[in-house]
Amino acid sequence: MRLKRDFFIQSTLKVAQDFLGKLLVRKYQNKLIAGIITETEAYIGPKDKAAHSYKNRFTKRNIAEYFLGGFCYIYLVYGMHWQFNITTSLANKPECVLIRGVLPISEKNFLLNGPGKLCRYFNLDGSFFGEDLVFSKRIWLEDSKIKFKKSEIKRTPRIGIDYAGKYWSKIKWRFVVEKI
DNA sequence: GTACAGATTGAG
DNA sequence: TCAATCTGTACT
Fold it and tell me: Is the entire prediction scored with pTM above 0.85?
């Protein structure tokens, strides 16, 4: 069952946790690529110093962050890696969830850990900027029967944002499934 | 216009 | 430990 708009417009921290166990599906050259989401991070601007939308920063690159929940916010970091985010909450609330890890369902014992690797595997690039996951024919999310227990989900600080200061770099907004 | 650093990764 | 390499931001 494909996830609809009402799922994405819930609070960002809830969506970030609920993404774990959901299926990311990509249609590429008439084939389906799918994986179970195992790692996410929440970014809640404009108060979040680690978010691109901190203090309501608004540029051509991060404009999608202000969209209604359920859209793709994808951008290039370090000049070479794409980061795949999904917007949450309502329009003009710059909140999103970064998808950091996925378990491909077709290949066993192979975990895509890291947002850059994930985008390469799913063939995601800038052309998905602003794509609507509720209606898109080439990328969407589906519910699955997989439900992780609370004891299997670990909360940790987010990765790679030490610049955000003591408070924001330590807050536990990263959600990881420990055993798969 | 120039300088700089970042939500990363893989090689050495 | 470090380079690869694009883009927005904060300067001159």
Answer: yes
